[in-house]
């Protein structure tokens, strides 16, 4: 049983690796290279974010771009690669390579800036210089948290596990992962920047997907009720979170940080009016389109296999069958003897006299014998 389970995981990873796009493969390749470079402390200092060296006079701003590829532990690197391959296999066909790459930079770069600011706050509260120079910020935790938000958007009502007490749905995965990160931080399994980056990766990715992501139909964001900020929390406390989130949203709209949701009316046709609501229609249409294309391809493959297995006849056998059919069609004779001894035959024009005398001879032979 264990061997078959390991084989299934290996087959899924193998299919994910071969079917993944260029962006996914480059991210995983840079993660492997970053782990190899992490054995050198000088490379870690040069590629990871050091809050004290980001500010002038050092101004190491390139670390905001390279920090996500650095990992100091092999099991962190393995988890990063597995998650990126499996989730990108679902996301990249829907979004495309350019959108996935843009989403990666939108999540990782602002997340590093936020983590640096939090480290400055920790230094201002404690005056410990280790927050400035001895605690580098690195890893792909922000992107992993963003993946959990994307899967929640694509499959909000998916049930992952069922227990006698509750059902684990995809909506609850981001919050559950945050709680798990807090527990791992308490037991010293992960550093504090992992918890910060994972939590803000969820927040930043949700903000982008909710308000700023462009869709193919010209709409922006996702206004579906299954993707509200309160939907990340359990139902008993979601109304309180909803009031808090709506207040912040109204403040952001007044400050013109984001736009209020609206409907688009298409009145070009006098017979009908088309109403377009931003967000879910584009994503749902893309998902349905991909599923339909996949189902169509599977059916076409099944038809091709059945056609290949269908027995074929030889050309000689087919020609003999056609000749027999042609001869039977030309020699068809119908005789009507209802009224007298008159003979009525329906035959082709060619050879009609010969067939007529043949029938007369056949009738005279029994008379002579009698």
TrEMBL record:
Residues 298-370 are annotated as: Disordered. InterPro entries: Rhomboid-like_sf, TMEM115/Pdh1/Rbl19. Pfam families: DUF1751. It is found in: Membrane. It comes from the Eukaryota. Residues 318-370 have a biased composition (Polar residues). One of its GO terms (cellular component) is membrane. Keywords: Membrane, Transmembrane, Transmembrane helix. One of its GO terms (biological process) is retrograde vesicle-mediated transport, Golgi to endoplasmic reticulum. It is a multi-pass membrane protein. The chain crosses the membrane at residues 21-39, 59-88, 100-125, 137-155, 176-209, 229-253. This is Rhomboid protein. It comes from Rotaria socialis.
């Amino acid at each position: 049983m264990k061997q078959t389970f390991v084989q299934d995981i290996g087959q899924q990873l193998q299919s994910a690796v071969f079917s993944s796009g260029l962006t996914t493969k480059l991210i995983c390749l840079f993660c492997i290279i970053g782990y190899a470079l992490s054995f050198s402390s000088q490379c870690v200092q040069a590629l990871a974010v050091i809050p004290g060296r980001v500010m002038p006079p050092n101004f190491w701003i390139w670390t905001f771009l390279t920090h996500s590829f650095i990992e100091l532990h092999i099991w962190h690197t393995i988890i990063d690669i597995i998650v990126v391959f499996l989730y990108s296999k679902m996301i990249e066909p829907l979004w495309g390579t350019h959108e996935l790459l843009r989403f990666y930079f939108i999540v990782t770069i602002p997340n590093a800036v936020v983590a640096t600011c939090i480290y400055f706050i920790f230094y201002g509260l404690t005056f410990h210089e280790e927050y400035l120079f001895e605690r580098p910020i690195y890893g792909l935790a922000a992107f992993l948290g963003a993946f959990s938000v994307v899967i929640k958007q694509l499959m909000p009502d998916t049930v992952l596990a069922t227990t006698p007490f509750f059902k684990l749905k995809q909506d609850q995965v981001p919050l559950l992962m945050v709680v798990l990160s807090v527990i791992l931080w308490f037991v010293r399994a992960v550093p504090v920047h992992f918890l910060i980056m994972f939590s803000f990766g969820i927040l930043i990715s949700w903000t982008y997907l909710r308000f700023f992501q462009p869709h193919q139909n010209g709409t922006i964001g996702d206004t579906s009720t299954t993707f509200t900020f309160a939907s990340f929390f359990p139902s008993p406390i979601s109304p309180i979170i909803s009031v808090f989130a709506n207040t912040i949203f109204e403040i952001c709209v007044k400050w013109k940080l984001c736009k209020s949701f609206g409907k688009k009316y298409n009145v070009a046709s006098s017979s009908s009016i088309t109403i377009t609501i931003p967000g879910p229609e584009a994503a749902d249409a893309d998902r349905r389109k991909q599923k339909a294309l996949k189902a169509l391809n599977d059916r076409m493959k099944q038809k091709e296999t059945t056609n290949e297995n269908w027995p074929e006849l030889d050309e000689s056998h087919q020609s003999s069958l056609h000749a027999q059919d042609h001869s039977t069609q030309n020699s068809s004779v119908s005789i009507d003897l209802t009224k007298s001894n008159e003979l009525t035959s329906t035959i082709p024009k060619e050879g009609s006299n010969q067939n007529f005398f043949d029938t007369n001879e056949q009738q005279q032979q029994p008379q002579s014998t009698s």
